[in-house]
Amino acid sequence: MRWFLPIDVVNKLEAEGPYAWVQYTPGEPILANRPNEGSVKRRNERKRIGQKKAFIKSEAKKRKAQVQEAKRKKIIKRVERKMAAVARERAWTQRLAELQQLEAEKAAKA
Question: How many domains does the chain have?
Answer without folding.
Answer: 1
